[in-house]
Task: inverse folding
C-alpha cells in the first residue's frame, strides 16, 4: 500500500509536510484564471478572459476552492491525479450531453487495472485499500475517460501522472530515492531530546548488590520487605544530600544503578562507586545541528525546493529578502509547470 507507507514516512519527518505545503502554495501562487491563446504575427499570446458563464460552471463544483488545491496536493505528494468527469443527467433522456462537473478522487484510494498487451487500460478502481478485504463489494470500478468520446459514460475517470523513469503506471515522488536519509532525519529530534534529557544526570551512582545483601543480612530483612525499602530510600536521599551542588542547588541529579560485578573489569564489585559525568552537551549539540543541516538540505533538495523557500533556517545561513527572491525566481523557471 504505497500511498499509506509514503504518508507514514513523511509523518516521521517533522518538516516534510511543511515543505510539501510550501510546494503546493508555490504551484498555486499565480492564481487560477481563464485565458485564450491568440496568435499575433509569429507569437502566441495568452489573452486573459472574464467569462461569467464558464466561471459559474466552474464554481458549481467548487473548481477554484476545492478541485484545484486537491489536485495540486495529489500531484505534489504522489505525482498522480484521478479526475472523475461527471456527465449531466439529462443526457440519459435525450438532452444534449455535457460535462456537469469534475470531481477529484483521492489518489490513495485509486488503483489501476492491469494493462493489456498494448499497454492500455479500460478501468480504474476505487476503494479504501487500507481497510478493505478485497471483496468485490468493497471495490468500485470506473471506466477510463475517453477523449474521443467524452460523454460515453455517466462517470469516467482521467488518470494523469508525472513522467517517471522506470515507472510506467504510477508517479514516483522525488523523496523515494532518499528513504534512508529521511529515516535518519526523523531520528534527529529524538537525538536532541535524549541529549538534553540525559544531560540532566551529573553523576552515576553504582551500588554493589553485595552491599545491599549485607544490609539485609545484618538487619534480618528480606529484599522485598517494607523496612529494606525505607532504608534504601533514606540511603538514596543521603547520597543526594552528599551531591548537592556548590550553589546549594540539589538538582545535580544522579543515575543510580546496581551491579554484582564491575562492568569494566568484571571483578567483584563492592560498596558504592560515584562517577561524575562530563558535560559535553555543547559539543553534542553542535554535532547534532551540523547533521541536521546536512540532512535538511538533502531533504529539501530531494523535494526540488530551495531551503529558503521551504522556510528552513540553517545554521550560519542568514535569510535575506534578495536571496529569497532569487530562490523564488529560480524555482519558477525550473520547477513550476505552466
Result:
Amino acid at each position: 500500500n504505497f500511498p499509506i507507507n509514503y504518508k507514514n514516512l513523511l509523518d516521521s519527518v517533522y518538516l516534510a509536510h511543511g515543505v510539501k505545503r510550501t510546494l503546493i502554495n508555490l504551484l498555486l501562487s499565480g492564481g487560477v484564471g481563464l485565458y485564450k491563446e491568440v496568435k499575433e504575427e509569429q507569437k502566441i499570446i495568452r489573452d486573459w478572459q472574464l467569462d461569467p458563464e464558464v466561471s459559474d460552471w466552474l464554481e458549481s463544483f467548487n473548481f477554484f476552492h476545492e478541485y484545484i488545491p486537491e489536485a495540486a496536493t495529489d500531484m505534489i505528494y504522489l505525482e498522480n491525479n484521478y479526475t472523475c468527469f461527471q456527465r449531466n443527467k439529462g443526457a440519459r433522456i435525450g438532452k444534449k450531453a455535457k460535462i456537469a462537473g469534475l470531481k477529484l478522487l483521492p489518489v490513495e484510494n485509486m488503483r489501476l487495472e492491469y494493462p493489456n498487451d498494448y499497454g492500455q487500460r479500460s478501468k480504474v478502481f476505487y476503494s479504501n485499500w487500507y481497510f478493505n478485504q478485497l471483496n468485490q463489494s468493497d471495490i468500485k470500478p470506473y471506466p477510463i475517460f475517453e477523449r474521443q468520446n467524452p460523454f460515453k459514460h455517466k462517470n469516467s475517470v482521467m488518470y494523469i501522472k508525472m513522467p517517471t523513469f522506470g515507472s510506467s503506471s504510477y508517479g514516483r515522488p522525488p523523496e523515494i530515492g532518499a528513504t534512508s536519509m529521511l529515516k535518519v532525519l526523523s531520528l534527529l529530534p529524538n537525538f536532541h531530546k535524549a541529549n538534553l534529557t540525559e544531560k540532566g544526570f551529573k553523576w552515576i551512582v553504582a551500588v554493589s548488590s553485595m552491599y545491599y545483601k549485607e544490609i539485609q543480612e545484618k538487619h534480618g530483612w528480606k529484599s522485598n520487605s517494607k523496612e529494606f525499602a525505607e532504608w534504601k530510600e533514606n540511603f538514596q536521599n543521603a547520597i543526594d544530600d552528599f551531591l548537592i551542588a556548590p550553589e546549594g542547588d540539589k538538582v545535580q541529579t544522579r543515575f543510580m544503578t546496581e551491579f554484582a560485578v564491575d562492568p569494566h573489569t568484571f571483578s567483584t564489585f563492592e560498596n558504592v562507586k560515584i562517577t561524575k559525568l562530563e558535560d559535553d552537551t555543547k559539543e553534542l549539540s553542535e554535532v547534532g545541528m551540523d547533521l541536521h543541516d546536512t540532512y535538511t538540505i538533502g531533504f529539501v533538495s530531494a523535494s526540488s525546493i530551495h531551503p529558503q523557500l521551504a522556510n528552513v533556517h540553517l545554521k550560519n545561513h542568514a535569510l535575506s529578502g534578495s536571496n529569497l527572491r532569487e530562490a523564488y525566481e529560480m524555482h519558477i523557471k525550473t520547477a513550476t509547470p505552466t
The longest strand covers residues 80-87. The radius of gyration is 32 Å. Residues 161 and 170 are 7 Å apart (CA to CA). The chain has nine helices and eleven strands.
